[in-house]
């Protein structure tokens, strides 16, 4: 049976370069034999985390739905923008909510712990979001997730993609495929 991966960009911007990158990463994962569900976080709106709101209203239904999606997949592919050398607040908010208990009391952390993740970033700048990736790695490790060693940051992202979605830099496209392979390998090991 093929490995099922969930994939999303931590940007809700229409013209997001990270969405383009996650689409390419999903393509590579499919080439490697995985089934990939590509999500748009616009479909999973969550308010900025607030303890009083959680106490009054519980975890947002979108977080419960995203957790259900995670539970039916064996790994995750994630592309994040870099804001001032850090990852996007959308990524932090999404996973902070996911780490909280679900409405039915089910642990949020249990759903994240041990899940393999591949992390990549893209930006119009010269560093491609490279400075944000170590922080994403640390943050997801804190949630107990298994972050694949291979990662890539795509610089000058506005002109980095061909129309068919491939990366202009062939070496980077190969490195991107390696991210997909590592996540699939980790997910296969975990499933065996
Ligand atoms: C508040 C803010 C801070 C930013 N800081 C960085 C940065 O540190 N490094 C970088 O390469 N780009 C930075 N950018 C530019 C983003 O990389 C760019 O807006 C990118 O397109 C966002 O990703 P997206 O296209 O996937 O939404 C910043 C943008 C904003 C709005």
TrEMBL record:
Q: What is its EC number?
A: 1.-.-.-
Keyword entries, A-Z: Flavoprotein, FMN, Oxidoreductase
Give this protein's Gene Ontology molecular function annotations.
Answer: FMN binding; oxidoreductase activity
Q: Which InterPro entries match?
A: Flavoprotein-like_sf, FMN_Rdtase-like_dom, NAD(P)H-dep_reductase
Q: Which PANTHER family match?
A: CHROMATE REDUCTASE, NAD(P)H-DEPENDENT FMN REDUCTASE LOT6
SUPFAM superfamilies with a match to the protein in the record: Flavoproteins
Q: What is the recorded name of this protein?
A: NAD(P)H-dependent oxidoreductase
Keyword Mitochondrion recorded? no
Q: Which EC main class describes this enzyme?
A: oxidoreductase
Is Cell wall biogenesis/degradation included in the keywords of this UniProt record?
Answer: no
Q: Which domain of life is it from?
A: Bacteria
Q: Which residues form the NADPH-dependent FMN reductase-like domain?
A: 4-157
Q: Which cofactor does it need?
A: FMN
Q: Which GO terms describe its cellular component?
A: cytosol
Pfam name, any one: FMN_red
């Amino acid at each position: 049976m093929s490995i099922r991966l969930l994939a999303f960009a931590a940007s809700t911007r229409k013209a997001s370069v990270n969405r383009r990158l996650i689409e390419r990463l999903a393509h590579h994962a499919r080439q490697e034999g995985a089934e990939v569900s590509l999500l748009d976080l616009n479909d999973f709106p969550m308010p900025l985390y607030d303890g009083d709101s959680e106490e009054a209203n519980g975890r947002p239904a979108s977080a419960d739905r995203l957790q259900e999606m995670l539970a039916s997949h064996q790994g995750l592919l994630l592309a994040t923008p870099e804001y001032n050398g850090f990852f996007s607040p959308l990524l932090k908010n999404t996973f902070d909510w996911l780490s909280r208990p679900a409405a039915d009391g089910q642990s949020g952390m249990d759903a994240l712990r041990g899940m393999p993740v591949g992390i990549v970033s893209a930006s119009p700048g010269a560093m491609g979001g490279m400075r944000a990736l170590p922080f994403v790695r640390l943050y997801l490790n804190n949630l107990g997730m298994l972050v694949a060693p291979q990662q890539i940051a795509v610089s000058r992202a506005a002109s980095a993609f061909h129309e068919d979605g491939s990366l202009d830099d062939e070496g980077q496209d190969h490195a991107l495929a390696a991210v997909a392979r590592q996540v699939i390998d980790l997910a296969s090991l975990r499933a065996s």
